[in-house]
Every structure is written in C-alpha cells, then in structure tokens.
Amino acid sequence: MVVPPEAQDLFCPITSAGQNVIPQASDTFLGLITGLLRFLTTSAAVSTDGGPGRVGFSALGMILFLSLSACGGDSGTPAPVLNIGISPASVPAGQTAILTWYSNNASMCQASGAWMGSRSTSGSLGVWQAAPGTYTYMLACSSTPSGVASGSATLTVTPGAAPLSILPAALSNGVVGTPYNQSLQATGGVAPFAWMVSSGALPRGLSLSNSTTNTVTVSGTPDASTQGAAFTIQVADSVHQTATQPFTVSIAGSLNCGSGSTNAGGSPEIWLWPRYGSQDFMKFFEPNAAWSQVAPHVRVVGLSIEALTQTSQSDLTTILTDLRQRNMPISLAMLPLPGGGPTGCGYQVEGYSAPGQTRQIANNVKALGSVPKAYSMDEPLYYGHFYTGTNACQTDLPTLIQQVAQSVRDARSVFPGVEIGETEPIMAVTQGGLTDLSNWLDFYQQTIGEPLGFMTFDMDWSSQWSSRIPAVITLLRSKGVAVQVIYNGSGSATSDGNWTGEAVTHFQAFEAIAKPDGARFTSWNPHPSHMLPDSDPTTLTGLVNSYIHYETCP
Fold first, then answer.
1. Count of alpha carbons within 13 Å of 21, Cβ hemisphere only?
2. Which domain holds residue 56?
3. Which of 71, 81, 116, 361 is the Cys-Cys partner for 12 at CB 3.0 to 4.6 Å?
C-alpha cells in the first residue's frame, strides 16, 4: 500500500539541525484522527466475538506501519547527524585555525557562510582570515530520503601583526666592476619571511640573498652597464601578508681611472669630515672602528663646528684622543665673521659667530692635547658679501677681509703657522664672472701675507657647472691656491643608497673634466645615516672606499 505525500507530511518526522521533532497538529491531522476513532468505534459495535480490540488495533497498526515506512522508519536509513567545530576558536588575523567536521548517515555536504562549495562528509581544513571579525562556517549534510543535518562553527579573528612593508623605497645606482651591497628590511609582519624578485630582473651581476629574516641584501659586482633596470621585490610573512616594492637601478660604465688629471701629484688627497648627527658618529672614533680599509688613504679628518661646540667635553676628549692615537691630522671648522645681536647683520647667518669663538675653540683643543693641521673657514666670501637674505651684511671686500684676518690671527695665536683655507659655493661666487673671486684672493694674500691655503668647492651639482669649472681652477692655481671639491649627494636623496650613488656619479663627472688637489667627503643632509662600515657602499666611509677604488683601479 502506498501512503500519499499528504500523509507523509502529516506523520513523517521533520529533521531540524539533525534532531527529529513531531510536527504541529493541523486541522487535517485532527480530522484524520477523528475519522480513525469513529472507525474503531463502529468496528467495536458490530463485533459479536469480543474482538473489537483486534479489529481496531489492527487498523491503527496498519496506518502507523505505512506512515513509518514512508518516513523511512523501518527503511534502514537513519536521519543524518552532523558534528562541526573549530580550534582554536579565536586567532589573530592571518593565522590558521583547524575546522573539523564529520557526519553519519549523510551522502553529501554543502558549505556556506565563510566557506563555500561541496564538501566531503567528513574532514578537516586549515582556515584563516586577513581581517579582524567574526566568521561563521556553515555546513548542511544530507541523504535521500533521510533528511538534512545542519551545523556551524564560529571563528573570531582578532587584530594581527602590523602591516608588512619594505624599506627603503629606493636603491642606489652602481658602477661596473664596483662591489654593490645594499640591504632591504621588512617592517611589521611575523617571521619567518620569504623574499623574491616578483617581476623584472636585477642588473646583471647582482642577486638577492636567501633570507628568512626581516632583512635581505642585493649584492654582487655588476659587470654590464644598464640604464633604469626596473624590478619588484616581494616579501611574504608567516601569517599570509605580502608586500612589494618597485625599484629602478642604473649601472654606470667602467670607471675611467685617472682620466682628466690636471695636477702633478696624482690622486687627490682625501679629507674625511664625519657627519655630526650620523647614527654612529661616536663609533667612528673607537679604536677598532670599521673603517680600516679607507683609513690608510685618508690624509685629514675634519671636525665641524657642531662637533667642536655641541659634543660634551668627554666626547670631544674621546674624539681627539682617538685621532692622535691613529696619527691622523685634523682640520677644524671656523666661522670667521663677527656676528651681531638679534637686530644686527650676520645674526643667525652661516659663517658668522660670536666674537672670540675661534680663540675659545682653539684653546680648548690645545688643552685636550691636539694641534690641527688646518682650519677651513665657512664660506666668508659668499655669506659676507654676496648673500642677500635675512640679516645679510653685504660687506665690501676690503672690510670683509679685515674681519677674516682677525679670526686668522686668533687661530694662529694658539696654533702658529696652521694652514688656513675656506669653503665656498663656487658657482654662486662666480656667477657674475671671476673678478670678485680674483680680488678676494688678492686681498687675502696682501692682508695675511701668504696665499690662501686651499679653496674647497661646495658644488651646486644641478647647475651648468662643467663649462665654468676649468677657468675657476686655472685662476686658483695661478694664485697658488690648492683646489678641493666636496663630493656629496643631494638634499633630495631619499635613502643612503641614493645619496652615495649620486656622489659616485658626481666625482666621476667632475674628474672627467679636471682632477682636484683634494677630495672632501662630508654631508650636512640626513643621508647617509651611518659612517660605518667602509665595506658598505651606502655609508660615508663606504663612499670613500668607492672613490679609492676609482682612483686606484687598473
């Protein structure tokens, strides 16, 4: 006998979340029960042999049997049962939890919510989410005709590691045949890390180190020139974060060793002025400081006004003691012009100082046991005569040279015979021609009784300097003045590598035209941030090492 679907709807259990429940009574259901009772009553009335129970209970049993058969009650297919869970129930963003489920009496499962698609009737899966929040993994497992079992597991995702990024945002350029070594660092994220070149290619001869830490290096010796090699470096961490950073690096051709030399002495003297404020400034003056490769080639170490006036007496003692122990000559900076008060000219103008500062510094250095080889005056011609900004003095040359002469006398009263030179923004002081510079040098010799010891060019590398420099050098040498050049990067450099890369380009470009008597290496920009080690081409001593290679390569 077949039970119609309506009867199944009335009698069959309804499965909800894997649990069987009896349906709510309906009018049809109640009517059917009423008819059944009426049938049983009638059967009992016509019976003569005491068998109403048999007839009535047989009818009731038949109906229940058919109902249970239609619902699977005796079909041998029990209703599905589902168990689902997640461990741990809470994880930081990007970390993995294990979702586990198993079902009985089911032939298929369907996922929804935080996961989707068909699933096996049992299994486990690592799940993670990148963003904090609450995620529900729902699953429904079914079997025909036994019904559906449903369940869910909830994962709470808390804020995870700091976002991943790569620093610095730029790498320096290189030179064919010159060792190249620059570091990249991942900030944020969770170790271990995986690094790769995700697009483009490094310049030939360079490679990315194999690293699982937050630091990786691009290193090697480039063997071919290239312009604007573009590539992207990617880092991934253990919690599924990734970061990328694009780079563009150019490799200049081989250095033209010894080209353009105009001085009979060969390679220029190297004067190294440690950048006061660099992160390892005082480490430079430790006995085993990491500049042993360049130290034998450095002829003078210079000390800025900041180093002489802003370091503690204890630190200044350490600095001077170390340089004496190295038998390293020193040069002292000098602000040679007398500054006025807040309402006077020269107030807070470069090159000006309080009266008596030069003598005071000299006495202190002497008391600490040191004697300088030279003084370098800070741009007296430009700031004393040409400068037109706030508190400008614009002093005439004869008066200006008398002010300078007083500072020279103050220095030599403590250190007789010390050499005196000056630094000038050479393009600015020769913008109108060479007359003012020539007169200035003549006034100095007439007043002091000897030529200026040296003129150091503070270059404006963005100007059209190459056409003017040869004539300036000719003038200086005709008056017995040695020529020095500051080889540096620009204030707009975005990284140590950019700054030192610019400096390499500048010394190659300058010495393709003329070779100076001295090469000065210093910086008053934020870069390079480190003096050491000299094996790293992005440090100041590393730049000096690149220059030494340039001067001595075959």
1. 9
2. 5-70
3. 71
Is 175 found in the same domain as 120? no
How far apart CA 278 and CA 123 sit, in angstroms, is 58
Closest CA to 213 of 241, 184, 233, 239: 184
> Is residue 273 in a domain?
no
Q: Are residues 355 and 434 in the same domain?
A: yes
Q: How many domains does the chain have?
A: 4
pTM of the full structure: 0.60
Q: What is the distance between the alpha carbons of residues 72 and 461, in angstroms, rounded to a whole number?
A: 92
The string over 259-276, giving b where at least 16 C-beta atoms fall within 10 Å of a residue's C-beta and e elsewhere, is: eeeebeeebbbbbbbbbb
Q: Which residues pair with 113 in a beta bridge?
A: 137
pLDDT in tens, 200-256: 999 999 999 999 999 999 999 898 878 789 999 999 998 889 999 999 988 876 655
Give the DSSP letter of residue 252: E
Q: Nearest to residue 506, comparing CAs of 521, 528, 525?
A: 521
Cβ atoms of 482 and 518 within 8 Å: the answer is: yes
Percent of the chain past pLDDT 90, that is, above it, reads: 66
User: Which of helix, strand or coil describes residue 307?
Assistant: helix
Q: What is the CATH number of the domain that holds 222?
A: 2.60.40.10
User: pLDDT tens for residues 137-172?
Assistant: 999 999 988 789 999 999 999 887 788 999 998 888
Task: Mark residue 95 as left, alpha or beta (left: phi above 0; alpha: psi -120 to 50; beta: remaining).
Answer: beta
